[in-house]
Design goal:
Elements lengths: L2 E5 L6 E6 L17 E2 L3 E5 L4 E6 L5 E6 L18 E3 L2 E7 L13 E6 L7
Antiparallel strand pairs: 1-2, 3-4, 4-5, 5-6, 7-8, 8-9
Length: 123
């Protein structure tokens, strides 16, 4: 199971921990590889199975979640998603899909997802 953990910067004490995947994702490496993003009130993180979550920074409770498959997302390799969401004002930007077999570059098949802080799709 992959988790987001919040620790005190002063004492190192764990303040809360929230699961962001249900069980261990089924790919070559079970660990998480996302860097969470924070906008002051919320934490955004992506599990390696392509689930993006928004958590309340105060207690780690789930605010909303979405799955990259909603945008036609697919993993580029057997390692899972290694996505770190970008927060820009009211937007959360992520890149849930790349054409199968394409190791880089920009093509029409590449996809970005734009959500607002409520989880509603913007594009």
């Amino acid at each position: 199971m992959q988790r987001v953990i919040c620790a005190s910067t002063e004492s190192g004490e764990i303040l809360w921990s929230a699961a962001i995947s249900q069980g261990n994702p089924k790919h070559d490496y079970e660990g998480a590889r996302s860097t969470p993003s924070i906008d002051g009130e919320r934490v955004y993180a992506v599990a390696s199975n392509g689930r993006i979550v928004c958590l309340d920074i105060a207690d780690g409770s789930l605010v909303w979640d979405r799955d990259f498959s909603e945008w036609g997302g697919r993993m580029m390799s057997g390692w899972g998603y290694s996505e770190s969401p970008l927060v820009d004002g009211n937007l959360v930007i992520c890149t849930p899909r790349r054409r199968s077999g394409d190791a880089g570059g920009t093509r029409q098949e590449d996809r970005q997802g734009g959500l607002d802080h409520t989880g509603a799709g913007r594009w």
